[in-house]
Write a structure and sequence with these properties.
heterodimer; A: alpha/beta; 15 helices; B: about 170 residues; alpha/beta
Chain lengths: ~425, ~170
Amino acid sequence: MHKTMSEKILADHAGKPEVFPDELVEVQVDFALGNDITAPLAIEAFRRSGAKKVFDRDRVCLVPDHFVPNKDIASAVQARMLRDFAKEFDLRYYFEVGRMGVEHALLPEQGLVLPGDVVIGADSHTCTYGALGAFATGVGSTDLAAAMITGKVWFKTPHSLKFIYHGKLRPWVGGKDIILYTIGRIGVDGARYRAMEFEGEVIDSLPMSDRFSMCNMAIEAGAKVGLIAPDATTEQYVNGRAKRGYKFYRSDPGATYEAVHEWNLSNLEPVVALPHSPQNVMQVTEIPETPIDQVVIGSCTNGRLEDLRLAAQVLKGKKVARGVRCLVIPATQLVYMEAMEEGLLEIFIEAEAAVSTPTCGPCLGGHMGILAPGESAVATTNRNFVGRMGHVDSKVYLSNPAVAAASAVLGRIAHPEEVLS
Amino acid sequence: MKIKGKTWKFGNDVDTDAIIPARYLNTIDPAALASHCMEDADPQFASKVRPGDIIAAGKNFGCGSSREHAPISIKAAGIGCVIAQSFARIFYRNALNMGLPILECPEGADRIQTGDELEIDLDSGLIENLTRGEKYTAQPIPPFMQKLIKAGGLMEYVKEQVSGQQ
């Protein structure tokens, strides 16, 4: 039988020769993670179960990243639950403030999630690791607790959808634009319960950072996983970082797909998702004049070094517009350090942007950049639901880092070429 | 098991930020989470809802984040069942893990309106709309999920394995 990547990875982790769509399988988990919002519930469930140990201290990971550095006393109490648990169960991978980063940027960077893995995370953007060719998906805290104890999780084997992208991308168009375009085409439930596979010459030439941005937002189309078949780009990224062995899986020619979408992206301009849904997309050139109050550049979607480089290209020698706050949040300590060494932080600070320590903070309206009633933000994050970044009457526009930076300079949603020409 | 109550109707793609905004996720206390349930979709919801009430909604209910706080807040607010055209996958898993009854019923989700009095038989999936004199049949819960529910949820199932090991 010809099989998809998802079917092959699940079969191998279930100890079966093959699995079929809709088949329920119990699979071995290679890595399981939680954060300071979801892990407290998992830790409670873990303790209530009477479990005396985690299944593997090297494969259960806690990353406080959402409401840290602690935004208030209640958050401090939740973060302490992670710290205490990590100490009690001697977890190898607990990342304290100062060592941590936004989880879905941090774990690939540290070589902890790898091609061919099954990864579950109590965070919906766990699907990011599909960019490495891992079957990685978000679950709730109780599923995490069960996996922390047993090292196993059950899944319904998903049907797969294939997305083939042709053409050559224009300047300032990247992974974020491709995934927003895709969600705009199929809708926020267009891949519900499905595995999305991204391929084609556009994907072949896409760097890892852009691949992470794409797979990160597969959940925004309702998908269980978003996958890119590993290639030389993947190998180059993983080689030297990997803390364990890994395996490349590719879908067989002739594997069964529920649908195949083929699009040419040569004429695509940068894409922006308007409030209040990631499917509500327009190309930036089509958007009527839209003044903004805040710009956020960072997050698990676009807080990597390559993203900051794009923003810096636009902001270099420019100033953030009067009346606009521009926040730049490197996703990890390493990204922060490299951005400093490359002089990117200097560019941001000279442009009068605020640069912060890694945190998910404003993306989910936690802290570090909350919007007042009536305010609008352009953000390189992944969700623009009602109230996502603050007050229920505020608005979030999702974009790539270059568009966000250009918007900061002009005080309205803008194409990078408007700043650089 | 039967549930009888009054319905609150919501639209398509109700996301978990609408169900329980992230600004309240600095606690895991069910009562505190319940007091902000559905706040960004209907600010008065938590004060209006009565034990046994029912939520009906369109497609893709519970899309967005993996926060288990969403089904926890709905359950702690006293909601007896959520009926929707369809559910987002993580929410679906979480609701069953939390013991919050949910039913997929495109026809019912379409016909039911706010204020309708419903009687639901969870075992058969039969939904009776007492206000409109209509009956709808929900998709049955898959047998594997029923097994988990009968065991008392995922953690009870795991506990059996834990006690077997020790």
